[in-house]
Design brief:
This protein has helices spanning 3-10, 13-32, 52-67, 189-200, 211-221, 240-253, 284-299, and strands at residues 39-43, 49-51, 71-76, 83-84, 89-97, 108-115, 126-134, 138-143, 149-156, 159-166, 177-180, 204-205, 223-227, 257-259, 279-282. By secondary structure, the chain is α+β, with helices and mostly antiparallel strands. The chain binds 6-O-phosphono-beta-D-fructofuranose and manganese (II) ion.
Length: 300
């Protein structure tokens, strides 16, 4: 089934337009990576060095989203201010997740959250989320409130269509892999102990350094991804609106759990557009276990 037909049967015209604008633009972003891989002398609002492709993808997605007339505002990891539109849905995006990995040809991605109100807001006002993976395949992993579906880009003449690859994706019952960001010696104590115990249980480390790429491995094999609280950065690195909340939404829809270490990631209220939070996402049993360990270490 094509993405377009899936959307026609499963959501509103506004959301269909938004998702199709993202899908069509993502093919252009993918094609533009080789010629826009260089760094610029500019920084995003989180202080990260921008690449030409960060700016290209941000500008393209923003323009095409606003052109749908279904978007109330677009906020992005690459912009300090929201861009207004004329519709109802607020879209938060990380237009090119993991762009520092382009030189090494690891997968990169794009993350989108669809919010019902003005931003910033917690993930409780998410009505849908999707992420694109530019890897060995270009895929869209999408939830609009019922289940998680994955579509793959396939060539059709001179263009690409997204075809349904999997429906009702769920974290496998037996967890196999884990991937935690940051330096091990900088992890807070309960995280260090937890990872030691995962290794004793035979889970394998899988970490490529792109949130979307590492998350895919956990969704496919079962396990846990985290960008934990660090001693040097107690609020972690990943941004709530653009990164942790949309991926938490997908996690819940796939039968998993996502926490900031003390409560559901969807409940975390960002005070500003680029606020960060520690994030632990994946198989429900493991995400709840680390939440328990962190809560315990705080109360002693
Ligand atoms: O967006 C931030 C990001 O690039 C994520 O894609 C990734 O999970 C993380 O940073 C990796 O950070 P580190 O190199 O500190 O592990
Ligand atoms: Mn990112």
């Amino acid at each position: 089934m094509k993405l377009e037909s899936f959307l026609r049967a499963n959501t509103t015209r506004d959301v269909s337009r938004i998702v199709m604008a993202i899908a069509d633009s993502s093919i252009r972003v993918w094609e533009a990576i080789p010629s826009n891989a260089g760094s610029l002398a500019a920084f995003n609002p989180s202080g990260e060095k921008q690449k030409a492709i960060d700016v290209y993808s941000n500008d393209l997605f923003t323009k095409e989203l606003v052109a749908t007339r279904a978007v109330r505002e677009v906020v992005s990891e690459e912009m300090a201010e929201p861009v207004p539109g004329r519709g109802e849905v607020s879209v938060a995006m990380d237009p090119l997740d993991g762009s520092s990995n382009i030189g090494t040809n690891n997968p990169v991605g794009s993350i989108f959250g669809f919010y019902s109100g003005k931003l910033p807001a917690s993930g409780q006002s998410l009505t849908g989320a999707l992420f694109v993976t530019y890897g060995s395949m270009t895929t869209i992993t999408l939830s609009l409130g019922v289940d998680v579906h994955r579509f793959v880009a396939v060539r059709s003449g001179s263009r690409f269509d997204f075809e349904l690859l999997d429906s009702g994706l769920r974290f496998p019952i037996e967890p196999e892999v884990y991937g935690f960001g940051g330096a091990r010696r900088d992890w807070i104590d309960p995280v260090q102990r937890f990872v030691g115990s995962l290794e004793e249980r035979g889970l394998k480390l899988r970490y490529c350094g792109t949130f979307v790429g590492d998350y895919n491995q956990v969704l496919a094999r079962g396990g846990i991804f985290a960008y934990p609280a660090l001693r040097s950065k107690p609020k972690g690195k990943l941004r709530i609106l653009y990164e942790t909340a949309p991926m938490a939404y997908i996690t819940n829809q796939a039968g998993g759990y996502a926490t900031d270490g003390t409560r559901s990631l969807l409940e975390v209220e960002p005070a500003s557009l680029s606020d960060t939070s520690p994030a632990y996402l994946g198989s429900s049993s493991l995400a709840r276990e680390i939440e328990g360990l962190i809560s315990q270490s705080r109360s002693t």
